[in-house]
Amino acid sequence: MNPDHSHFSIGINLSPEDHDPTVLFSGEGKPIHGHKIGPSVHDFFLIHTVLDGEGLFQTGGLSQVCRAGDTFVIFPGSLFSYQADRTTPWHYVWIGLQGEATAKLFSEIGITRDKPLLHMEDITEICAVYERVRKSFQQSAYPRLESLEASGWMRLLFHHFGIANRSILPAYPQQLPEVIDRQIDQAIRWITLQFHQHISIVQMASTLGYHRAHLSKAFKQKTGLSPKQYLMKVRMDKAKELLGGTLTIDQISSSVGFNDALYFSKQFHKWSGKSPSDYRNLLRS
């Protein structure tokens, strides 16, 4: 038992990443009356969410009494202190984070050095998420797997924070031309990721909320190609790349979404002016 807390538990990451947002540790505690930390600085990010009671958080020019539902974030290099109330000391959970992209992730949900606080009316769900983060660290023989699990739960926690901060976050613009552009971008991404599968332009249009003719017109205005032509281009470009390797023509055909190698060869010749074999020989010459 930590002598400064009536309850204290913590999980520590034995295999943290340096670059992506990653959880260093996570804990839960009930400090004793008047318990204080700081003034201090950390070289990592530290999130606290208050479950019960109250205490005082201070950083920069900010001094804020925090109660149940309040979350405060300490940024690396920022001078801070926080102290449990002498009458009703707080009960809180916390997570330490590091990673080059962490500050950007905080900014995207409306949390910055100047605005390190947020409030949630219902903390039932995030209490469960904090617990899952903490219990990810079992000090097993697979610390990397523990770190991956904790990072997944951490991102869900950020989602909840973002929902709580929706009123101050910029919404996606709803002007029709920009909405159409975004849907065409989704169609392009769909084709780029799924070109090796059977793709129905009708189904894709329906999923994006368009009639096929409407999608084809908007798609061609943006890309210069119809969805079917764009799909063929993606497949042929990938086929050219694979022909530089060791896969057979049959294997390449299947890899780019053709069940019939002969049909693939005809389409490739129509697209490039050469058969797959001739194109491969050209690459090797």
TrEMBL record:
Coiled coil: none
Keyword presence, Magnesium: no
SMART domains, A to Z: HTH_ARAC
Highest taxon of the lineage: Bacteria
A single MF term (Gene Ontology): DNA-binding transcription factor activity
Keywords: DNA-binding, Transcription, Transcription regulation
Positions of the HTH araC/xylS-type domain: 185-282
CDD domains reported in the protein's UniProt record: cupin_MmsR-like_N
Entry protein name: AraC family transcriptional regulator
Species assigned in the record: Paenibacillus wynnii
Native organism taxonomy: Bacteria, Bacillati, Bacillota, Bacilli, Bacillales
